[in-house]
Amino acid sequence: MKNPLSKMTFFFMMAFIFGTAHGQDMVDITSPNNGDEVGATVIVKGTSDIGNQGNVWVLLHVKALSGQWWPQNKPYRDPATGNWEALVYFGGPQDIDSDFEIAVATFTGEAEKEILKYHEHGRKTKHYPPMSFPETTSDIKKIIVTKISH
C-alpha cells in the first residue's frame, strides 16, 4: 500500500465496517400496529439489537401533549432473541378517543437511573407527572394508537 489514496480508502472502509457492526442500538415495535385501536392497557411487543450497555424502555403520551412523556414498566427482554414486551397503560376514562404516541428506545445507564427514579417517586407519592424524553442510544421508534375504551 504505497499509494496514500489506497491507505485512506482502506482506513475509511475499515471505519465503515467496524462502525456498522458496532454501531447504534436498534429497537422496533411489532405490536400493536400504527393506527390500531386499544383499551385501557395493551402489551406492546418489539425487537431489539443492543449492546451490553443498552436498556430498552417504552414511553408514551397523549399525542396532543408534546414533550411530556410517561415511562411505562421496564420491558421483559429475551437476551437470546432480543424480543421484548411491556404492559402499557393508556390513561384514564377521560382519555377515550385520544390518540396516544407509543415510543421505544434504548437508554444509557444514567438515563435508565432517571426513569427508575421516576417510578420510585411515583410509587411513594402515587403521583406520576410527565417527564422529558431522556437521551437515547438508539433511534426512537414511534407509533400512534387510539384509545377507544377503558
From TrEMBL:
It comes from Candidatus Kentrum sp. DK. Residues 1-23 form the signal peptide. Keywords: Signal. It comes from the Bacteria. This is Uncharacterized protein.
